[in-house]
Amino acid sequence: MLSAVTPSSSSRPALRCLCLALAALALSGCASQSRKTLANLDMSHPRYASRECQMAMGQARLHDDIKQTRIIASPAVVLLSGGSLFLPVMAVNAGLDTADHLEASDMSVSCGGPETANSDIAKEVLLGVGFGLGLGK
Fold it and tell me: 3-class secondary structure for 47-65?
């Protein structure tokens, strides 16, 4: 008779760390909304060379760094807290997503592109939170 193979209690933390590392690697290619907006700017627009546009584009790297840190830190904090910090972590991530989307909209306007409506930003952030909760996007 075959017996079910289950990891021993001593290997469970190692398995969790491995899953966390794999999830971080899978998500590490995700770019911030600011980076996505930067990639779609019209370089031939007269406002692209403006000081305001160039300063706004400088924020894309900051939002990329924040997003990369969140990808690793958020699951780690939730796991280390035993799940008790799940809602606060999701709230912080939603706030950081909102800031990124607002900054991306400002960058687009500064560089001659369209402004993103606040309702569209809210919808994207809520979908992102839903995706983070495993509800799908």
Answer: HHHCHHHHHHHCHHHHHHH
DSSP 42: -
Task: Quote the CA–CA distance of 78 and 94 in Å, as a whole number.
Answer: 15
Q: How many residues does the chain have?
A: 137
Helix residue ranges, H only, 28-117: 33-39, 51-57, 59-80, 86-110
pLDDT-based confidence at residue 128 (cuts at 50, 70, 90): confident
- Residue 116's CB: how many other CB atoms inside 10 A? 18
Contact 81/104 with Cβ under 8 angstroms?
A: no
- What does 121-137 look like in DSSP terms, one character per residue? HHHHHHHHHHHHTTS--
Token pair 């079910």: residue: 4
21, containing H or E segment: helix 12-27
Taking only the tens place, the pLDDT of each residue in 59-112 is 888 999 999 999 889 999 999 999 999 999 999 999 999 999 999 999 999 999
Nearest to 124 by CA among 58, 36, 8: 36
- pLDDT tens per residue, range 11-34: 566 666 555 555 544 444 578 999
